[in-house]
Amino acid sequence: GVELPDDLILVHKFGDYYSLQARKSMTVDELNAKITDFLTMYGECLTKEE
Fold first, then answer.
1. Has residue 2 been placed in a domain?
2. Full residue range of the structural domain in which residue 28 is found
3. How many structural domains is the chain composed of?
4. N or C: which end of the chain has fewer CB within 10 A?
């Protein structure tokens, strides 16, 4: 697995639905930048069939 940055947390909502959220107080712009950086570094695009 991939380790999340210290200031992000993965929250299990229900079923297979998860939400990547801020662990500490930050602006929406800061959160968007952190999530974008994380996904750019570790994300992988899949097709619907994959």
1. no
2. 8-42
3. 1
4. N
Rounded Cα–Cα distance for residues 38 and 2 (Å): 10
What are 9's strand-pairing partners?
A: 21
Sign of CA pseudo-dihedral 7, 10, 11, 13: positive
pLDDT in tens, 1-28: 889 999 999 999 999 999 999 999 999 9
Alpha carbon separation from 10 to 17, 41, 49 (Å, rounded): 10, 17, 25
Give the predicted TM-score (pTM) of the model: 0.75
Q: Is residue 23 part of a domain?
A: yes
% of the chain at pLDDT higher than 70 = 100
**Residue 33 falls within a domain, yes or no?**
yes
